[in-house]
Design a protein that fits this description.
The chain has 112 residues and is mainly alpha-helical. It has one domain (2-111). The chain has 4 helices and no strands. The chain crosses the membrane at residues 6-30, 42-65, 71-99. Belongs to the heme-copper respiratory oxidase family.
């Protein structure tokens, strides 16, 4: 019973919140930059896939407490570290597209 509860809570944190963050970031890219929605959707699929993959494997760093083999510490730690990489690349992509577009946005502070 507690095992299922633990997985639900951790996969909720590792998966769902990252997907919400990715969709909000994609929405902001479209609204602030005027980037084509199809381009953002293609990036969003990649980011969602990487976030879910790294989030599910990143849960492995908690397996120490249930007596799993030691390699799960390494796998979980590595993929927990990689969880932020998709979002970082999306932010970099936003700044590059903003710079290339040359669009004058009224809220310059948002696009420093």
């Amino acid at each position: 019973d507690k095992g299922y509860w633990w997985y639900v809570v951790h996969l909720w944190v590792e998966g769902v919140w990252e997907l919400i963050m990715a969709s909000v970031l994609a929405f902001l890219m479209i609204k602030l930059n005027g980037i084509d929605r199809e381009v953002v959707e293609k990036w969003l699929y990649v980011i969602v896939g990487l976030a879910l993959f790294s989030g599910i494997l990143g849960t492995g760093h908690h397996y120490y407490w249930i007596g799993a083999p030691g390699y799960w510490q390494w796998i979980g730690s590595l993929f927990s570290t990689l969880e932020v990489a998709p979002f970082f690349t999306m932010v970099i992509f936003t700044f590059v597209m903003t710079w290339k577009a040359g669009r004058k946005h009224p809220n310059r502070a948002a696009l420093l």
